[in-house]
TrEMBL record, chains A, B:
InterPro entries: Heavy-metal-associated_CS (IPR017969), HMA_dom (IPR006121), HMA_dom_sf (IPR036163). It comes from the Bacteria. It holds the Pfam family HMA. The keyword Metal-binding applies. GO terms for molecular function: metal ion binding. It comes from Nitrospirillum amazonense. SUPFAM superfamilies: HMA, heavy metal-associated domain. Keywords: Metal-binding. This is Copper chaperone.
Amino acid sequence: MNASYRIDGMTCQGCARSVTKAIQAVSPTTEVAVDLEAGVVAITGPADGDQVKRAVEDAGFDFVGPA
Amino acid sequence: MNASYRIDGMTCQGCARSVTKAIQAVSPTTEVAVDLEAGVVAITGPADGDQVKRAVEDAGFDFVGPA
């Protein structure tokens, strides 16, 4: 599954890494590409939207929705 | 329980919030104070060291140990 989500609150590479790890903690085989400038995370793999939303929010970022 | 831990990789307030939320996701009543400059997180509440370590690592930061 490929999907892109708008995520607010990522301001540096540490934030980008944090979002990536949080998603991979719930879905280890999912690939995550963060566009920090755009505030968009592109997902390739089995993680579904609800898993991504929960992981992102638990990591302290704002899950806005599909990008 | 009060404890302080050295955590590497936090570079901005987004990172600090991420670490705080990650710890509170596993232990909601734990208070977390981040000293970004020092790379130290002070914990007040029931979260134990193993929980903190796992939450911090799942969030993409490096848990170094007691500060």
